[in-house]
Amino acid sequence: MKKSMLALLVSSLVLTSAYGLESHLSTEQSEALVQHIEENNIEFVTSIINKGFDINTDLEGDGTALIIASRNDHKTLVQALLDLGADVNHATQRDGTALTAATISNNVEIAKLLYLQGAELDLITEYDETALINASRYGHFKLVSFLVENGADVNLGVNAKTAKGIVYRSPLKNAKTQKIRDYLILNGAQS
Question: How much is the pTM?
Answer without folding.
Answer: 0.84
